[in-house]
Amino acid sequence: MENNPQSSSSNAPAGSSNGANAQRPFTGSGTGNVREGAEKLANTAERAKNDVADGASDLAKDVKNEASDKADALKDKAADVVQDVKEKVSDTSQELKEKGARVADQIQESGEKAVDAASTYAKSAVNAVEGKVRDAQDQYESAKSATRDFIHDDPVRAVTIAAIGSAVLTAALIGIFQRR
Question: Which of 17, 35, 117, 180 is the most exposed place for a label (fewest CB within 10 A)?
Fold first, then answer.
């Protein structure tokens, strides 16, 4: 890019300088130099404009790409955080399930132990009652057998004892009812 519209091969007279204060005489071919200089200046301005536009376009593309890259990086980071949270929630959920299963197992074991203890207690109670019933039956059978033997061996005495017992019981009942 050349900012000087005149080149060293200009049509300036031989003793004149190209300085800022130099004056040129007006010649017919000078109009062509001004026009060429103006065209060069216009072309230079157009190239500068195109360069600025291209630079701005490239800068915009670079900014867009960088913003897109940063957005992708943030998106990836957010996805990683979400994944970590999901894993932690899943792990916590799994731990809670396992603890719940252990508690359920402990409750089931405790229930089974309680049922076993109640069953054992009920069996021992039934066995104790059966033993008492058997003892009472044995005593009843023994008393029945002794009474039968006593009646068979000495019937007069058995009837006398029965009569005396009956009289005592009747007198007791009469005494109870009369007090009321």
Answer: 180
Contacts of 25 (CB under 8 A, 6+ apart): 13
Per-residue pLDDT tens listing for the chain (180 residues): 444 444 444 444 444 444 444 445 444 455 678 888 888 999 999 999 898 988 888 888 889 899 999 999 999 999 999 999 989 898 898 999 999 999 999 999 999 999 999 999 999 999 999 999 999 999 999 998 988 888 889 889 888 988 999 999 999 999 999 987
Please indicate, yes or no, whether the overall pTM of this predicted structure exceeds 0.85: no
Q: Which two tokens stand for residue 61?
A: 């593309």
DSSP annotation of 1 reads -
Taking each helix axis from N to C terminus, what angle separates 155-178 and 30-153, rounded to the nearest 10 degrees? 120
